[in-house]
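[audit] Reproducing an earlier prediction to check determinism. Same input, same settings, fresh worker. If the tokens differ from the archived copy the diff job will pick it up downstream; this log only records the rerun itself.
[audit] input (193 residues):
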Amino acid sequence: MGGHLDSWHTAVGATDNGDGVLAVMEAARLLAAVGAQPRRTIRFALWSGEEQGLLGARAYIEQHLSDEAARDRFSVYLNDDPGSGGSLGFYMEENEPAKALFDAWLEPLSDLGVTRNIIESIGSTDHVPFNQAGLPGFNVIKDFEAYDERTRHTNADYPERMSEDELKQQAIFLAHFAWQAAQMEERMPRTGG
């Protein structure tokens, strides 16, 4: 699972995507705090170069997933970008079998407002290189509130725009989905690449 650290040039990138990074880090802390020992390894990656062409994610794939054996061991990448707003579910990248699994994982989070995964795709973020390489990658659906109009790629993208309650919700959501994916006996269904 991961998020990106780089920002747009006019501000510090708190909501794009500093809060997504915080949620990923907190999800890692939560899993460690409860002594989680999943069946599969959960890796947490913080990217740079997302705004410049998904460079960090592309470099990771080239360095760590370039051979068939590594790709065979890989199961799924969960991406949190943009971080701003409560998490609602995932864009499922037209992957119907994965959506069936993700839909089953929603129920315990309904009281947090995590209510839907949609079959559609979304582009321009760090899960895309994984999909292009034939590896399942999914990006979080957000309740954007005023994100697109108020902070995204503007000089208003500073930490005071972040919400502690949303960050807590995001971290629980990410930790839950990472745990569920890591407990699978088989790897995540793939749809091509």
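[audit] rerun output stored. Observation attached for the diff report: The longest strand covers residues 137-142.
[audit] end
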